Amino acid sequence: MGHQPEFDIPALLDEHGPASGPELAQLLDAHPSTVERRCRTLQRDGQIRLVTGGQYAIVEQDTVRTRSASD
């Protein structure tokens, strides 16, 4: 007891598309509050984001543009 399962939520969102916390909990067979806490951590880390309808989606890394000296 006390073991915290690791959820690969970004991989799940990549495979299934945007999903709400309760939907993710059902897919992961986990408690919704546990999934919501993990999602908040992933949001702070910039791995996922909250989108329309209260769903989470992965952050597309290739859409982030850095400024170059020519900008």
CATH architecture: Orthogonal Bundle
| Topology, number of strands | 3
Q: What's the Cα radius of gyration?
A: 14 Å
Provide the helix percentage: 40-55%
Q: Tell me the structural class.
A: alpha+beta
Global shape: globular
Tell me the major beta sheet.
Answer: 3 strands, antiparallel
Determine the number of helices (DSSP H or I, runs of at least 4 residues): 3
Beta-strand portion reads 5-15%
Task: Please tell me the overall pLDDT.
Answer: 83
Question: What is the total number of structural domains?
Answer: 1
Elements, N to C (H/E): HEHHEE
* Biggest sheet strand line-up: 1-3-2
Structure, briefly:
Helix content is 41%, strand content 14%.
Write up this protein.
By secondary structure, the protein is an alpha+beta fold. It has a single domain, classed as Arc Repressor Mutant, subunit A. Helices cover 41% and strands 14% of the residues. The chain is built from three helices and three strands; from the N terminus they run H-E-H-H-E-E. It has helices at residues 9-16, 21-28, 32-44; strands spanning 19-20, 48-51, 55-58. A three-stranded antiparallel β-sheet has the order 1-3-2. Strand 2 (48-51) and strand 3 form a beta hairpin. The longest helix has 13 residues, at 32-44. The radius of gyration is 14 Å and the shape is globular. The termini are far apart. Residues 63-68 have low confidence and may be disordered.
